[in-house]
Amino acid sequence: MLRALLFIIPLALMIYAFIDCLNTPEEEVKHLPKPVWAIVVLLFSVVGAIGWIVAGKDRRPRTRGGAGGWVAPDDNPEFLKSLKDEGKTGRPDEGHTGRTDDEDLRAREADLRRREEELRRRERGEDTES
Description:
Elements: H1 2-23, H2 34-43, H3 45-56, H4 77-89, H5 101-129
Helix pairs in contact: 1-2, 1-3, 2-3
């Protein structure tokens, strides 16, 4: 098993580096042109793959979006401020009727009982017709 790992790990590293090299945009490739890096990775397997991973690609984090970049909601101060404001003014729930939670729960239970009764009537009506 150990002999197989000594073959599989360098092969996997080389395949990863080669595919990463091919998928990397030309602007992010450093030191050598992209086709030369691909040849280096294929010819010098482990050394070439490690060279590509360490020195061949610009590995700085990319920003998404405009000048400020994309920010996750929990890191966005404007979003967090809007949550605090909603907490002061009430729930932003679109279906909220202004009733308290207990009143809302009672109304939903009554609606459920009414629907169940309608369903029972329909079932009884269908049973007598057939």
